[in-house]
Design a protein that fits this description.
Protein name: DNA-binding transcriptional regulator, MarR family
CATH architecture of the domain at 29-144: Orthogonal Bundle
Strand order of the largest sheet: 1-2
Oligomer: single chain
GO molecular function, one term: DNA-binding transcription factor activity
Structural class: mainly alpha
Keywords: DNA-binding
Number of helices: 7
Distance between the termini: 44 Å
CATH topology of the domain at 29-144: Arc Repressor Mutant, subunit A
CATH class of the domain at 29-144: Mainly Alpha
Length: about 170
């Protein structure tokens, strides 16, 4: 039996758009819950700063500001809070004495790893409620969606804070 071709979806189809928006709300909720469950009180922007430093290694605040797309003074305030919480450390940079290095502390590393692990666990729990065939189809469709949306290359995911895996000791996902 020959399957009839699927009709092309109209990008203006409200039903499809609404389904994607509903899925996005679920995923944003997962991201927020994964951060909120941390022992430390930390905001999304602060967490993103930790992820960038975790992935790229020691940075100075101007480089962090650029990576986050923030004004340097906003990045400095973010780092001040993270240093106060002992999630980030500032040290002299032996290669450039004009800039202090921002380094993730062990406590900061545990926080990043814990959030990422909770995020994976929450998503796996949601996926477990779906039939096997639907999960496989969802993965294929979401991969196409991510590609159409300009998903960064695999090696860049961690640095923008969107990967679902924790980095190894070298900062790679």
């Amino acid at each position: 039996m020959i399957a009839s071709p699927q009709p092309a979806l109209d990008p203006d189809d409200d039903e499809v758009t609404d389904a994607v928006l509903a899925a996005a709300r679920v995923l944003v909720g997962v991201a927020i819950r994964s951060i909120a469950a941390a022992e430390e009180s930390i905001g999304v922007n602060q967490f993103r700063a930790l992820v960038i430093i975790a992935s790229r290694g020691p940075l100075h605040s101007a480089a962090l500001a650029e990576a986050m797309g923030l004004h340097p003074s906003n990045a400095t305030r973010t780092c001040d809070r993270l240093v106060a919480e002992k999630l980030l450390d500032r040290r002299d940079n032996p290669a450039d004495r004009r800039h202090l290095q921002l380094i993730l502390t062990k406590k900061g590393r545990r926080l990043v790893d814990g959030v990422m692990n909770r995020r994976r666990t929450l998503i796996k729990g949601i996926l477990a409620q779906m039939p096997d065939g639907d999960r496989r189809q969802l993965a294929d469709v979401l991969n196409e969606f991510a590609q159409a949306g300009g998903e960064p290359a695999e090696q860049d995911l961690w640095s923008v804070g969107w990967t679902t895996q924790t980095p190894d000791d070298n900062g790679a996902p």
